[in-house]
C-alpha cells in the first residue's frame, strides 16, 4: 500500500520544473563553497593561467552533460534508481545507487567540515565544531523535509543572494589592483594544461543533480540548451572570481592563501564606511554558497535512499544518512587533513557519476529500446 502511494506521489511530481528552475538548481549546486578555494588551487598548478584551464574544463564537460541528457531520454525520463534497476538488474542497480549516495555523503562531510572550520576562524572562535555542524543539520533537515518543492524554491531565492552581491562587489575589490598580474599567457607546456584541467574539473562537482531534476522538467526540448547555459554561467563566474583574485593578490600570493576569495572580499573599502564589518558580509556569502550545494546533494541522496529501500518519504532517509555525514565530518583532525583527504578521494568520485555511468546507461538503454522494437 505504501509503495503504491509513493509511486502516485512520484508520478505527480513529473513535469513540475520550469527552465528557470533547471538553470538555478544546476548553478547553485555546482557553484558551492569550492569557489572560495578555486583560485588557490589553480594558482598552485598553472600560475596566472587558471582562466584558460576553466574554459578547457567547461569544453570537456559539454559532451558528458549531453550524454547524461541522452541517457535519461532514451530511458524514458525515468527516475535514477528506476533506470539503474531496469538497465543493470535490481541488485547491481541498487549497488550503483548506493555508491552515488556514498559519494554524495563524502562530499557533504568534507564540505561540512570545511564550512565549520571557516565559521570558527572568522566568526565563532569559541563555538565547538560539533555544535556548528549540528545546527547545519537541523536547518538543512527542516528544508529537505519539505521535499523537492521546498528545495527548488530555496534555489530560486539563493541564486540571487549568491551572485548579485558578489558581482556588485567585484568593482570595489578591483580598486587599485594590478591587471598585469595575468601576464604572460600561454607559457606552459600542453601537458601542464592537461594536469591543471584535471584539478580544475573537480571544482565542477554537482552535475550529478541532473539525474534527479531532468525527469521533472516540463519542457524537455529545452533541457540541453538550459544545461549548456548553466555550464556557461558557472564557467564565466569562475573566470571572474579567478581573474579578480589574480588582479588583487598575484599568482604567488594566491597560492599561499587558504581561501583567496574570502581574503579578496575582506579587503573591500566601501566609501564612507557604509559597512564597518565587511568580514561578516563575506561570511554570509560563504554560508549561502555552502548551503546550496549541501541542500541539493542532501535531498538527492535522501531521495535515492528512499527509492532503493522503498521508504515512505525522504524524512526516513534523512534519519539514515545524517549520522554517517556527521561522523565523517568530524573524522579529520584539522582543515589541513580535510583538504588532504579531499585531494586523495575526490578525483575518483564524480568522474564515475557523470562520466562512466551515463555512457553505460545510454548503451544499455539503446539495447533495451532495440529489443522492445524488435519484439513489436
TrEMBL record:
Task: Please report the record's description of how this protein sits within the membrane.
Answer: Multi-pass membrane protein
Presence of keyword Transport: yes
GO aspect biological process, one term: spore germination
Q: Which UniProt keywords apply?
A: Germination, Membrane, Transmembrane, Transmembrane helix, Transport
Major site of localization recorded for this protein? membrane
Q: Which family does it belong to?
A: Belongs to the amino acid-polyamine-organocation (APC) superfamily. Spore germination protein (SGP) (TC 2.A.3.9) family.
Q: Please give the name of this protein.
A: Spore germination protein A2
Name the gene for this chain: gerAB
Amino acid at each position: 500500500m505504501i509503495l503504491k502511494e509513493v509511486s502516485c506521489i512520484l508520478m505527480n511530481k513529473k513535469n513540475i520544473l520550469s527552465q528557470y528552475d533547471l538553470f538555478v538548481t544546476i548553478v547553485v549546486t555546482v557553484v558551492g563553497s569550492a569557489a572560495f578555494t578555486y583560485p588557490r588551487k589553480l594558482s598552485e598548478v598553472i600560475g596566472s593561467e587558471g582562466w584558460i584551464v576553466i574554459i578547457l574544463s567547461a569544453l570537456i564537460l559539454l559532451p558528458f552533460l549531453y550524454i547524461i541528457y541522452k541517457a535519461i531520454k532514451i530511458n524514458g525520463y525515468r527516475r535514477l534508481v528506476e533506470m539503474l534497476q531496469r538497465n543493470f538488474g535490481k541488485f547491481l542497480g541498487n549497488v550503483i545507487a548506493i555508491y552515488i549516495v556514498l559519494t554524495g555523503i563524502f562530499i557533504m562531510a568534507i564540505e561540512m567540515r570545511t564550512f565549520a572550520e571557516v565559521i570558527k576562524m572568522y566568526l565563532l572562535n569559541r563555538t565547538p565544531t560539533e555544535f556548528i555542524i549540528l545546527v547545519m543539520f537541523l536547518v538543512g533537515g527542516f528544508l529537505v523535509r519539505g521535499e523537492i518543492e521546498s528545495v527548488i524554491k530555496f534555489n530560486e531565492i539563493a541564486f540571487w543572494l549568491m551572485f548579485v552581491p558578489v558581482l556588485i562587489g567585484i568593482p570595489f575589490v578591483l580598486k587599485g589592483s594590478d591587471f598585469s598580474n595575468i601576464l604572460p599567457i600561454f607559457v606552459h607546456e600542453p601537458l601542464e594544461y592537461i594536469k591543471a584541467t584535471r584539478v580544475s574539473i573537480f571544482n565542477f562537482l554537482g552535475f550529478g543533480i541532473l539525474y534527479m531534476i531532468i525527469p521533472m522538467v516540463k519542457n524537455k526540448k529545452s533541457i540541453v540548451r538550459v544545461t549548456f547555459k548553466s555550464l556557461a554561467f558557472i564557467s564565466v563566474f569562475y573566470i571572474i572570481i579567478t581573474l579578480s583574485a589574480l588582479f588583487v593578490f598575484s599568482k604567488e600570493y594566491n597560492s599561499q592563501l587558504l581561501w583567496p576569495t574570502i581574503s579578496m572580499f575582506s579587503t573591500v573599502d566601501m566609501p564612507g564606511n557604509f559597512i564597518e564589518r565587511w568580514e561578516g558580509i563575506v561570511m554570509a556569502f560563504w554560508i549561502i554558497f555552502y548551503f546550496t550545494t549541501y541542500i541539493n546533494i542532501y535531498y538527492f541522496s535522501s531521495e535515492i535512499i528512499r527509492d532503493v529501500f522503498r521508504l515512505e518519504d525522504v524524512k526516513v532517509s534523512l534519519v539514515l544518512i545524517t549520522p554517517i555525514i556527521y561522523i565523517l565530518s568530524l573524522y579529520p583532525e584539522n582543515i589541513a587533513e580535510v583538504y588532504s583527504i579531499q585531494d586523495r578521494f575526490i578525483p575518483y568520485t564524480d568522474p564515475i557519476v557523470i562520466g562512466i555511468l551515463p555512457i553505460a546507461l545510454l548503451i544499455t538503454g539503446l539495447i533495451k529500446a532495440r529489443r522492445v522494437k524488435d519484439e513489436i
